[in-house]
Write a structure and sequence with these properties.
It contains 31 helices and 18 strands. By secondary structure, the chain is an alpha/beta fold. It has 5 domains: 3-195, Rossmann fold (3-Layer(aba) Sandwich), CATH 3.40.50.300; 203-330, Rossmann fold (3-Layer(aba) Sandwich); 399-510, Arc Repressor Mutant, subunit A, CATH 1.10.10.10; 524-597, HRDC domain (DNA polymerase, domain 1, Orthogonal Bundle), CATH 1.10.150.80; 609-678, DNA polymerase, domain 1 (Orthogonal Bundle). The radius of gyration is 32 Å and the shape is globular.
């Protein structure tokens, strides 16, 4: 039976979707394949059908148990021998799979990547007649991706051990992620690559600035009453609060997040698959592998992590090809949260810079002035005409010439050495003489007060749009200070103009006051970096993070920015032992360099007046090392001796003589006594 016959008789389709036939044929021939297909584009068929055309068993590695069980059930309903080995299997279910495998009846075996850590599972796979490995959601192998699964890194070893072809499938893989997939799954050998396009023309795209987000989501859901939907939230607490609010409005709704018991999550997954019109309010823990074809809408209460995450999450709507709708809310708090998550990650600086650029791309989509679908597809390397199926196509936004405002902002960035975040820059532009502005002499800059025509909220919207146009990016190594990109230089030089959205300024000005932040906007990136360092140290030591330093201590560090161990010791919660254990690590984060090594005797005096006294004594000793005339035999005091003088503060020459001894007292005693008198 050929591919078309299988397609019709087993899967019930009269024709392949665009791009499917080519992929099926190449996978069936046993070639290595990487296929990037839009969510809902029929990826599963591209490994299920070849499995029927090939001898042996196709091993399918998939990250979500619920999806595997659904696909196995659907295949069995279609008459295909398929099975899954998961932690949710009953003993009878697993025994039936092993029996079918042993008897050579099984065509597709589904396995979660976590099972690859088991020696027994690897031995079982070596004995089975595996002829092909199919990897679903292959972007999970990317270590810095938003859905990274560590066990995906074992797949390359398995492929080598079984010596069989591998077909990898994903909907979200930019050039960087594709390169990582090839390196980790195919040992760097180029597979046959199929990119089927990213457009989902049936999905309506819309963004709104936050203005009472609960009310906005309730209104959106009410207009789509009876239709299944997903509402994504950034926090677990929000999922429960909003699910309750939807239920109170008469919607069938439930929450889903990673903090729920496994049985509770399975219940929600089963309800969502089986019930019509159910709304699931969830964190991103819900969704990867969601295969419900009639999800009619997806809403984001909070801005997603990146444009890839946004694309994947909205792609869960309208998999059946019928019209579907999306709404994404965004506000200043979202952007700060996402920036903080990037800055607090343990990724290297270049990766955090790339993640900030990805977030900038999503901001560019949120602030887009033209067709949103064109902006989205252009990010993935595709060009298209205006779609007519997004809010901007339906209601073009009002824009204005923002060139002058942007040039003022860029000038402020450059004149302050690209060392500050938007909050401080706005103070300069609007002429706000804060203590920080005066201390750095920024009230004397030519740009001081040149932007008074805009209020603070309007300038925040301008800076946000500048990030959306990728004119500026936060510098992870400077704790969020804004750096200008090459794209901004023509504007700064007067060689290019830029338009901005007027509605973004109006909405910004109307925003209600946000909840009090832990620190001000300027110190937030440094606090994020300190938290990241705390988490890394805690993980290394196997301790709870608060046992390193609590939040209050980190907040004080971010605000005071200690530059030396003495200054660090003045921070609440930093004791001598913690200074010794962790001080250098946190000082390096704050100051960008490892502090000079101190003798333990000096370090014990950190933060005390005795420490300053020790330093003065050490300077005097160095000056007198060869005597007052510089011609005598070199002599010095040990660090312990200097520390003893600094701590005991001898009151007279006799006491000094007892500590230093005759020879050293003769050389240094008088100078030391003079310094001690200064400290009285």
């Amino acid at each position: 039976m050929n591919a078309e016959a299988h397609l019709a008789e087993i899967f019930g389709f009269n024709a392949f979707r665009p791009g499917q036939r080519e992929i099926v044929e190449v996978v069936a021939k046993g070639h290595d394949v990487l296929a990037i297909m839009p969510t809902g584009g029929g990826k599963s068929l591209c490994y299920q059908l070849p499995a029927l055309l090939r001898d042996g068993v196709t091993l399918v590695i998939s990250p979500l148990i619920a999806l595997m069980r659904d696909q196995v059930r659907a295949l069995r309903e279609a008459g295909v021998e398929a099975g899954a080995l998961t932690s949710h299997n009953s003993e009878a279910e697993s025994e039936a799979v092993f029996k079918a495998l042993h008897e050579g009846r099984l065509k597709l075996l589904y396995l979660a990547p976590e099972r690859l850590a088991s020696v027994a599972a690897r031995d079982m796979l070596r004995r089975a007649a595996i002829s092909l490995i199919a990897v679903d959601e292959a972007h999970c192998v990317s270590q810095w991706g938003h859905d990274f699964r560590p066990d995906y890194l074992r797949i390359g070893d398995l492929r080598r051990a079984l010596d069989v072809p591998l077909a990898a499938f994903t909907a979200t893989a930019d050039a960087e992620t594709r390169a990582e997939i090839i390196a980790r799954l195919f040992d760097g050998r180029e597979p046959e690559i199929f990119i089927q396009g990213f457009d989902r023309p049936n999905i309506h795209l819309a963004f709104e600035a936050k203005n009472g987000p609960r009310r906005q989501i309730l209104a959106f859901a009410d207009a789509r009453r009876g239709r299944a939907g997903i509402v994504y939230c950034a926090t677990r607490a929000k999922t429960e609060t909003l699910a309750r609010a939807l239920s109170e409005e008469g919607h069938p709704a439930c929450a889903y997040h990673g903090g729920m018991e496994a049985d509770q999550r399975r219940t929600v997954e089963a309800r969502f698959q089986q019930e019509d019109g159910l709304i699931v309010v969830a964190t991103v823990a819900f969704g990867m592998g969601v295969d419900k074809p009639d999800i009619r809408w997806v809403a984001h209460v909070d801005l997603p992590k990146s444009i890839e995450a946004y694309y994947q999450e909205i792609g869960r709507a309208g998999r059946d090809g019928a019209p579907a709708e999306t709404l994404t809310l965004f506000g200043a708090d979202d952007i700060r949260l996402r920036r903080a998550q990037i800055d607090e990650s343990l990724a290297p600086p270049e990766r955090r810079t790339a993640d900030h650029a990805r977030l900038n791309a999503l901001l560019g989509l949120a602030e887009a002035q033209t067709c949103r679908r064109q902006v989205l597809l252009r990010y993935f390397g595709e060009e298209s005409g205006p779609c007519g199926n997004c809010d901007n196509c339906e209601r073009p936004p009002e824009v204005f010439d923002g060139t002058t405002a942007v040039r003022k902002a860029l000038s402020a960035i450059l004149r302050t050495g690209e060392c500050f975040g938007a909050g401080h820059l706005i103070d300069i532009l609007i002429g706000n003489e804060t203590e920080k502005v005066r201390a750095r002499g920024h009230d004397r800059l030519p740009t001081f007060g040149v932007g008074k025509e805009h209020g603070r909220a309007e300038w925040q919207a301008i800076f946000r749009q500048m990030m959306g146009h990728d004119l500026v990016r936060p510098d992870p190594e400077r704790h969020g200070a804004l750096r200008m990109t090459e794209a901004a230089r023509p504007i700064l030089r007067g060689e290019a103009a830029i338009t901005l959205r007027k509605d973004a300024l109006r909405k910004a000005a109307q925003r209600r006051p946000a909840a009090k932040a832990l620190v001000n906007e300027e110190d937030a990136p440094l606090l994020s970096a300190l938290k990241a360092k705390r988490r890394a140290l805690a993980e290394r030591a196997g301790l709870p993070a608060y046992m390193i330093f609590n939040d209050r201590t980190l907040i004080e560090m971010a605000e005071a920015r200690p530059a030396t161990p003495d200054e660090m010791m003045k921070i609440t919660g930093v004791g001598a032992k913690k200074l010794e254990s962790y001080g250098a690590d946190f000082l390096e984060v704050i100051n960008g360099a490892v502090p000079p090594e101190q003798h333990p005797a000096r370090r014990r005096l950190a933060g005390r007046e005795a420490g300053s006294l020790y330093d003065r004594l050490a300077e005097a000793q160095l000056r007198l090392a060869r005597g007052g005339d510089g011609l005598q035999k070199p002599m010095s005091c040990s660090a312990s001796l200097l520390a003893r003088v600094a701590e005991t503060r001898p009151r007279d020459e006799a006491a000094m003589l007892r500590i230093l001894g005759e020879r050293r007292a003769e050389r240094f005693g008088a100078a030391f006594m003079e310094i001690l008198r200064e400290f009285d």
